[in-house]
């Protein structure tokens, strides 16, 4: 790959990482399925939760509670292009989240999750898509209710 193609591949994969969390937090959560290949996989090995294929991904992410408010911060995104049609990435995330949200501002509490994703990407017909996303969650806790006291 020439340097410009390499740079464009990295940027396309970075964009998928950010688009994923924007869709979860600000868009339609089930639409993250469109960012994956047809046989794409989202998994959390420690919880034994593999979700395979776009239909299953759409159902899984679409099942989030309607009253959930979340915001994720992504950082330390490192994309490695391994071939003209394959790439890998590691990125850190922090999640702030409450259930029972009905509008307005909620008191800021500590994040409920901090961890990292390991991603693989494939390019087909010129478009980069997630082939797999693996969640690693060393810091996690229960999702508080919006009107519950913070501890």
Task: Summarize the SSE layout with pairings.
Layout: H1 3-26, E1 36-43, E2 51-52, H2 54-62, E3 69-83, E4 86-98, E5 113-124, E6 127-140
Parallel strand pairs: 1-6
Antiparallel strand pairs: 1-2, 3-4, 4-5, 5-6
Fold and architecture overview:
The chain has 151 residues and is an alpha+beta fold. The chain contains 2 helices and 6 strands; from the N terminus they run H-E-E-H-E-E-E-E. It has helices at 3-26, 54-62, and strands at residues 36-43, 51-52, 69-83, 86-98, 113-124, 127-140. Strands 2-1-6-5-4-3 form a 6-stranded mixed sheet, with helices on one face. The radius of gyration is 16 Å and the shape is globular. The protein starts with a helix and ends in an 11-residue tail after the last strand. The model has no long low-confidence stretch (mean pLDDT 94).
Provide key terms for this protein:
six-stranded mixed beta sheet; 6 strands; globular
């Amino acid at each position: 790959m020439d340097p410009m193609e390499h740079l464009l591949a990295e940027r396309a994969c970075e964009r998928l990482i950010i688009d994923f969390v924007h869709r979860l937090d600000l868009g339609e959560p089930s639409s993250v399925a469109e960012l994956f290949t047809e046989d794409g996989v989202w998994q959390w090995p420690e919880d034994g939760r593999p979700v395979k294929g776009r239909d299953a991904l759409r159902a899984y992410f679409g099942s989030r509670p309607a009253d959930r408010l979340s915001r994720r911060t992504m950082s330390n995104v490192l994309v490695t292009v391994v071939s003209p049609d394959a790439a890998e990435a590691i990125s850190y995330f922090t999640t702030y989240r409450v259930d029972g949200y009905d509008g307005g501002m909620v008191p800021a509490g500590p994040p409920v999750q901090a961890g990292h994703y390991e991603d693989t990407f494939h390019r087909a017909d010129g478009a980069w898509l997630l082939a797999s996303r693996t969640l690693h969650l060393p810091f996690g806790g229960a999702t508080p209710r919006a009107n519950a006291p913070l501890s």
